[in-house]
């Protein structure tokens, strides 16, 4: 039995034909699979799986001592995360069906040609990685504890959905697959991309490029670089950003604005990590991990033919949607106070306090520009502030009307920062119903959807007489 080094998932070939097992190992190593070992004694197969980080087993069925069928059943029972590929001379449909039912990913009939073996093992490793990521993600989400909370400190929140989002981001950070971050302008997509890179453990750089407004030629030159003489003015070779970000993360912002021709080049790079610098006919490889972000609905762009469907699905191997600020109102006071302290420090002023009414006004504002808009608003208010408190008058005069319009459009009710009790809210409802009906208690009861007896009880609490019954 040969040993494999490293912590990557190992490919174990179990076949009593030593020559064939060695042939499989050589083929896989030549194709770039570094961690391959072989076992020619079926009695040692399960022990090898227990002792080493085996992810994929290429398994023969007809072997002395312990059959491949028995080993398959034990792998399913003891090591359910391990992917099994059957490679056997038994060419029977019933046997193939039985093996697939018992957990085998694929069934190859000998002699197995090289392309089929390589493609099947590659797919098996992808399935293994996916299962492992899903298991880790499930454990992390159930645990509800961030292991690297400091990496997300720039995203200030107390919202439960944001915490769940951080947990997911932390779980997929180590994956080599692309991450697509979507959300409205100003929600912090770039901050989350940086956090994912910081948690990933990648030693390379975090490199950012904004795709918006870049034509195909500039895109190719920016990402993939060029050789000397590749075009007029190319007096020297230049490395592209995928080379700069190799071993790290390449963050493609505003991916929804990428040109159609550039989409093809990006898709090719995402497929196998290969790219061609301008002027070169020899491919190069980069280990850069891609994170893309957009405020556009890519699914709608796909339906309209403006964005390639295959690129869309390739990019969203992991997808994170950041909710807008108006859907996490509890974060607004927290963010406002943080930005006020930040602005005061930058302006060499004492940190101001907020009047309750000012916070209520901010909570009712729809913030179409999200966190970025709130930060700009607070900085402007602190810069103009002549006292120690931020009042509603410190903010744009149209905020009150826009906040009212936004809440009226959504549910017709505007809640203050401190929610009233059910009793207080009911009394407010009764007062409003009486006001609208000119203190006609019968009409007010009907308008509020309560009985006359309940209306009478509320009126007694409010100290209102019983004279208006008609």
Blueprint of the fold:
Layout: E1 10-14, H1 18-30, E2 36-39, H2 45-51, E3 54-59, H3 68-78, E4 83-88, H4 93-101, E5 106-109, H5 114-143, H6 160-172, E6 179-182, H7 189-200, E7 206-210, H8 216-224, E8 225-226, E9 238-239, H9 241-244, E10 249-253, H10 260-272, E11 274-275, E12 284-285, E13 289-294, H11 298-303, H12 309-315, E14 318-321, H13 331-346, E15 353-354, H14 356-364, H15 370-384, E16 389-390, H16 399-410, H17 422-436, H18 441-448, H19 452-462
Parallel strand pairs: 1-2, 1-3, 3-4, 4-5, 6-13, 6-14, 7-10, 10-13, 15-16
Antiparallel strand pairs: 8-9, 11-12
Q: Judging by the overall fold, what is the CATH architecture of the largest domain?
A: 3-Layer(aba) Sandwich
- SS-based class: alpha/beta
Helix count equals: 19
Number of strands: 16
Q: Tell me, what's the shape? A: extended
Q: CA-to-CA gap between the ends?
A: 98 Å
Largest sheet: 5 strands, parallel
Look up the CATH topology of the largest domain: Rossmann fold
Low confidence ranges:
1-6, 406-411
Q: Please indicate the percent range of residues in DSSP E strands (runs of 2 or more).
A: 5-15%
Task: State the helicity in percent bands.
Answer: 40-55%
Question: Strand arrangement, largest sheet?
Answer: 2-1-3-4-5
What integer is the average pLDDT? 87
Spatial extent as radius of gyration: 32 Å
CATH H-level superfamily of the largest domain: P-loop containing nucleotide triphosphate hydrolases
In total, the number of domains comes to 4
CATH class category of the largest domain: Alpha Beta
Keywords:
470 residues; alpha/beta; Rossmann fold; 4 domains; five-stranded parallel sheet; 19 helices; 16 strands; 47% helix
